Amino acid sequence: MLLVFACDSNSDNENESSKLIGTWDWVSSCGGFTGGCWYPSAENYESIEFKANMTYIQKSNDLIILESTYAITDTITNGTDVLYTLEFDNGFSSRFRLINDTLSIEGGDFWKVYKKIK
Question: I want to staple 87 with a disulfide (CB 3.0 to 4.6 A). Which of 14, 52, 60, 93 is the partner?
């Protein structure tokens, strides 16, 4: 039996939002059809930035590929795993989780892992 508890406490979401603020470098992506992993290289690297004014900036090879406002709209707790829903102003949403200075963002059938750099 699997129990899932949902909570959308604004204070919890605000606390997690403050933990997101900063710049994050991509360190790996794992999952997909093969379950394999891939990693950044000198020719292929990414970073994301969450700003205090709720702006999100995603860069690929130092070029901005997405700039949007964001909000944390939902929280789901399953055992010790807490997943948050991140929504952007273009209607796109994705789940994420934070563990210490590591951020994992769901990208379909794989997870992208980022490390906070500042």
Answer: 93
